[in-house]
Every structure is written in C-alpha cells, then in structure tokens.
Amino acid sequence: MISPLTTNHLDPMVLSFRLSLSILLHLHPLFSASAYAHWTVNSLPGFSGDLPFSLETGYVGVGDREEFQLFYYFVKTYSNPKTDPLILWLTGGPRCSSLSGLAFESGPINFEGELKEGSLPQVLINPYSWTQNSSIIYLDLPVGTGFSYTKTSQDHKSGDHEQVQHSLQFLKKWFDDHPEFISNPFYIAGNSYSGMIVPIVALQILEGTYKHIFSFINFQGYILGNPFTIPHASENFRILFARNMALISDELYEQYDAILAYYWANNDQVRKALHIHEGSIGEWIRCRGKEYYNFELTSAFPYHVNLSSKGYRSLIYSCFEYSGDHDMVVPHMETHAWIKALNYSVVDDWRPWFIDDEVGGYTRSFANNMTFVTVKGGGHTPEYLREESSIVFKRWIIGESL
C-alpha cells in the first residue's frame, strides 16, 4: 500500500487515483505483481555443444495467489526477433505437454536413438522448425500438464474456463516481463483440443472483459491444426483402434517418439538444464489423464463466427491420407464442414498446392480471411509430416500464396 509519508503533498485527485489503482492491483489477479522467473538455456543433455537457437524456460504464477505455476519454453525466431511474428502455442489433449509442440510438431528439436539403460535419447535439430520465421512460446497448460504445477492440491481439477483465464493471465505477465515483443505481430496457435480454447482466448483479447488490458498486443490472427470444434467422447480409443485394425504397426504404436521424450524429460540432468522446480512434479507424462479436467464447452463454432466477422487472419490446417487412412480424431471433412457453415464466399477455390512439382495437399480461402489447408499423407498433428506443415506455415505467415 502507499505510505502516508509519500502522499502528504499530493493533489487529492492524484491520491484518489493512486489509492484506487493500488486496490485494483491487489484485488485483480491479472494486475497483481508476478512471481515469474526465467532462464536462458544454452545447452541440453543429449545434444553435443551449444544450442544453435535461443531457448528460454521459465515459470509464470497465475491465480489469485499465484498458486498455479505455468511452465513454458520460449524459442526466438532464427530470423529477426524484433519484427518477426510471436506465437503462443497451446498443445491439445487436453493436458498434453507443450514439449509435444517443441519436439514433435513445430519446434526446433526432436529425438533419436535407441533406448539403452543409463543413456539419454539423442537430441537433434529439426530443419523444418516454424521458428525459422517466428518466435514461439510453448506453454504447459492447463495446470498439471507437463511441468506446470499447483502449490496447493496435486488433485486440482482444471477445466475449459480456467484454461482460458490462465492463458490471459499468463500473457499479461509474460509481456510485462518481455516488453520488447509488444509490437511484434501476435498469433495464437494450437491443435486438437486446443481448438476449443484458442478462439475464446483470441476473442477475450479483442473484445472481452480484458480488452483494455490487452490493447497493446498487436493481435493478427490464429492458427489451428485439426481443431476440435465439438468434443468427441471416443478420442481415447482411436489410436488403439487403428492399431487393432492394422492401420499402424506395432512398432509405430510403441514409439511416435513419445517413449524417447519420456526418458529424456524424466532425467535429472534434463530437469536441471530446463530449471524445473525441484519436487514440483513427480513423473513427466506427455498427455495426462482427463479425470482431473472439466469439459465445460459444447462448441467453439460461435467464437469462430465472432472472430470471422472481425476479419482477422486465420489458418486452419488439416492432415489426411489417401488410400482410406484418415485422421480419425478430427477428420478433415468435419473441419471443412464447419468452415463452410460460417457462410463466407470463396475467394480462392479448392485447388492443389505444391512442393516442387508434387501435390502437397489442397487449399481453399474465404472472404473472412480464413485459409483452409489439407496436408496429404499426414496424421493428427504436424509431427507426421514436419516438412510439409512447415512449408504451409511459412508461406502463410509471410503472406505468400500457397
């Protein structure tokens, strides 16, 4: 609070304003002082030498008493951090770690090597990282995901609404600590179940309760891969179903790089390098069970309707395979159907897009500044075809025609 010794000679109106602001700072979690901490990571266990990219890890406290500690990885663009876009990446699930985005999807690393007792998987550089053209914050959200944790009950049950609020609180505090990125073009991205969350966060930034708080953000649009729009109850069984129907091999079922990540992220040297708070979590799990999550949203479609009316850019990409091998979690036909239901005219009709002379997939653009893209031969997330997904992203983010 303001000391009487500092207020004796202030104008009454100024004093009243400062007192009101002081009360607001204490009452509103979005404005409260943040106990964040971050570190520069120059090397990682499993990688030889210094990292050839800029990696920062850290925690941001959210909640009324900052009882929720959200962990993030921040990778600066390889190009120009002062002007290149900044992206907040929310991994789906819900409750799947953002290490999935960093190491399997759009980020600068991946894993290789045999699992041998006493050794770590080898960390490799992904030549198709989206960070060639943008800086990306990979956030472990909701709390209890990845390395994010709560200082109170380990059995805390998060949900859709809390995830939205924690996203907003995180962004406010992260930008407070990184003001040099305020003017960069800003996008929110994610895949799978984060398709339920990203449009709401975007809309809250633009016109919700917190619009005045985020007026400084240079918001440009959002990016979604195979997004959920209406949740599906049978998602837990689809990979197992694919395996039993011989659509994927036993070897593929037992890897997806997930086992390598498991051994890497649970290594003490790795946790020390990433500056994970000691004792904050037990076992790192890529995707945690959903018994501690409240599915509160029934549809994200109304939020797409609202955002479309504002004309912000959006990229919706969907992966599919020929010969009947489809993404069974969110088929591209379902995604295309709700986009058409927005009822905007087509400005660039259904056509193939190419990588050299090969068809990479198909695309269609609409008058609401939304681009729909399919990636041939892909799966549910970009990890299946990193090069193709990277090409789609690069062309779109710099404004090139697909």
Task: Compile the SSE list and pairings.
Blueprint: H1 12-27, E1 37-41, E2 55-62, E3 68-75, E4 86-90, H2 99-105, E5 109-112, E6 122-125, E7 135-139, E8 149-150, E9 158-159, H3 160-177, E10 186-191, H4 198-207, E11 219-225, H5 238-244, H6 250-254, H7 258-265, H8 268-274, E12 293-294, H9 301-310, E13 313-320, H10 332-341, E14 346-355, E15 358-366, E16 370-376, H11 386-397
Parallel strand pairs: 4-7, 4-10, 9-12, 10-11, 11-13, 13-16
Antiparallel strand pairs: 1-2, 2-3, 3-7, 3-8, 5-6, 14-15, 15-16
Helix pairs in contact: 3-4, 4-9
Describe this structure in words.
This protein has 402 residues and is α/β, with parallel strands linked by helices. The protein has 2 domains: 1-31; 37-313, Rossmann fold. It contains 11 helices and 16 strands. It has helices at residues 12-27, 99-105, 160-177, 198-207, 238-244, 250-254, 258-265, 268-274, 301-310, 332-341, 386-397; strands spanning 37-41, 55-62, 68-75, 86-90, 109-112, 122-125, 135-139, 149-150, 158-159, 186-191, 219-225, 293-294, 313-320, 346-355, 358-366, 370-376. The strands form 3 sheets. Strands 1, 2, 3, 4, 7, 8, 10, 11, 13, 14, 15 and 16 form a 12-stranded mixed β-sheet that branches. It has a two-stranded antiparallel ribbon with strand order 5-6. A two-stranded parallel sheet has the order 9-12. Helix 4 packs across helix 9. The longest helix has 18 residues, at 160-177. The protein is globular. The N and C termini lie far apart (55 Å). Residues 1-34, 243-255 and 320-328 have low confidence and may be disordered.
